[in-house]
């Protein structure tokens, strides 16, 4: 509840390599080529440009679909169906409908913007020095220690003081957490928050973790915006920070977002918006 989490999505790149096969001599019987692309079943006329077929097939392959006659037939069938539907829509004058035209314009704009942003990212890569600097900054914020902690969260300071008094008399922390904690994410586990760096919590909570000796609980309630906490530090260990190369893709994505945001703001400023 009071933890600060960061999720970063991973990007996957796909590349296709086509190799031309030499034509077999006319006198020789044609032999099957292992690297040749699967042939689609014979069909009627195509209502679409070949470039559209090539693009859609490329996209489907990039999504991980295996190249097969079935896939190629499905792409051809979809493109033919689309074209027939477009013709019917035009017969119904839907292409002249104001709202439909706006939607078409927005769809076209979205594709163009996506292409431009992708091109801009390629032309403006994040320097390695910036990535390393970001890594070092995050590493410093994490600190060199991790703490295995439990906590009991209550609404009022008097409640927290009462919990501390009961602990001092020998009450079990787990039992008090299950009975009195207001944190739904940890109370059923006896207040267990597992291993964390202090930077993963709001500052008062993180500071209390550092100040509390191993095996002890906070002698005074710790106030945060969530309420009052009683914190038990069960164990302490050296922080396990992933190596730079392992997190480099996430750092690139994080800084790319920041670079793009800065660029968008500059564009808006130049455009007077």
Can you put this structure into words, describing what you see?
The protein is of the alpha+beta class and 273 residues long. The protein has a domain of 94 residues: Roll (Chitinase A, domain 3), CATH 3.10.50. Strands 2-1-4-3 form a 4-stranded antiparallel β-sheet, with helices on both faces. Helix 1 packs across helix 2 and helix 4 crosses helix 8. The chain is elongated. It starts with 49 loop residues before the first helix and ends with a helix. The N terminus is likely disordered.
Name of the CATH first level of the domain at 145-238? Alpha Beta
Shape: elongated
Strand content: 5-15%
Provide the gyration radius in Å. 31 Å
Offer a few descriptive terms.
alpha+beta; Chitinase A, domain 3; four-stranded antiparallel sheet; 8 helices; 11% strand; elongated
Secondary-structure map with pairings?
Blueprint: H1 50-62, H2 69-91, H3 98-123, H4 128-142, E1 145-154, H5 157-168, H6 173-180, E2 192-196, H7 203-211, E3 222-224, E4 227-238, H8 244-270
Helix pairs in contact: 1-2, 4-8
What is the structure about, briefly put?
By secondary structure, this protein is α+β, with helices and mostly antiparallel strands.
